[in-house]
């Protein structure tokens, strides 16, 4: 499905990002993995290469524009271009009323979820244009469409991701670059397990959000990102596609 393509995946050290890295590589893409945890992405890249795929680990923080630029340039230098990106790095904490969210927590939430996507788009899209076009998928959330009980900062940040997605789709459609977002529901990632461990009662609340009464597996979200990056979605851009088990359908 992705043969001959080069894909950059952020937040690739675990969960949805790691699942996407494996899936994109299985579908023929050369994958550039970016995350702060160097040991994890290096191990994942090694396993992809051992399985016959092409992969490169570039440790970095999406909140740092220079780190993102370095990862993009590594993709071009190593594999000859950049065609696809899954901007999946994110940060969330337990929900608190707005007035109880510390300023530094607000800043961290906005930096990772909004500035991180901004940095990625700013560096990825010019290289995609150089490569003849491409596709970007940004990870938003059910919290990007409705107030979910997550912190106000997280809700604001994930709404902003959808806004950035739509603006970029409008700006670069004429250059052959498609930009879409995933509206992701509760997913059993490492970050989610940490939240549940801290507040066990939240597990039943998360599963109740879905009309299927369960959380998603990371692979289920990764498959949606794969489809949006593929030619099967060639006329889809500027969309915020739910992958939420029906949570937003009943909101």
From TrEMBL:
- In terms of superkingdom, the source organism counts as Bacteria
Give the Ketoreductase domain ranges. 5-189
Give a GO molecular function annotation for the protein. oxidoreductase activity
Q: Which InterPro entries match?
A: KR_dom (IPR057326), NAD(P)-bd_dom_sf (IPR036291), Sc_DH/Rdtase_CS (IPR020904), SDR_fam (IPR002347)
Q: Which SUPFAM superfamilies match?
A: NAD(P)-binding Rossmann-fold domains
Q: Which SMART domains match?
A: PKS_KR (SM00822)
Which PROSITE patterns did the record assign?
ADH_SHORT (PS00061)
In this record, what's one Pfam family? adh_short_C2
Give the keywords, sorted. Answer: Oxidoreductase
Would the keyword Oxidoreductase turn up in this protein's UniProt record?
Answer: yes
UniProt keyword annotation of Oxidoreductase present: yes
Q: Which PANTHER family match?
A: BLR0893 PROTEIN, DEHYDROGENASES, SHORT CHAIN
Q: Report the family membership.
A: Belongs to the short-chain dehydrogenases/reductases (SDR) family.
Stated name of the protein: Short-chain dehydrogenase
Q: Which gene encodes it?
A: fabG
